[in-house]
Amino acid sequence: MTSSALGSDSEHGLRQDSWVSRGEILLYFCDLVAQRRGDPGNDIVSLLTGIRVQGAPPSGQEVILTCYA
Predict the structure, then answer these.
(1) Closest residue by Cα to residue 60 from 38, 42, 43
(2) What is the mean pLDDT of each run of 10 residues along the chain (69 residues)?
């Protein structure tokens, strides 16, 4: 799935497969962020959901896109 989302071995890679894979990765991170906000663990997603910037936690979207990056 990761290779489908990030690139293709051929010039004419299946764009639809790539978009589906990206969507699945983003949905995975969305679920993981929600889980870690409710029950933090010892991992980077928990760290990201627990930080504060000027007293406020990052939005779910910010954490998800950081994970994706």
Answers:
(1) 38
(2) 53 75 95 96 96 94 95
Length of the chain: 69
Are the beta carbons of 5 and 22 closer than 8 angstroms?
yes
Residue 36: partners with Cβ closer than 8 Å, 6 or more residues away: 43, 45, 46, 49
Angle between helices 60-68 and 15-38 (to 10 degrees): 130
Q: HEC string of the chain?
A: CHHHHHCCCCCCCCHHHHHHHHHHHHHHHHHHHHHHHHCCCCCHHHHHHHCCECCECCCHHHHHHHHHC
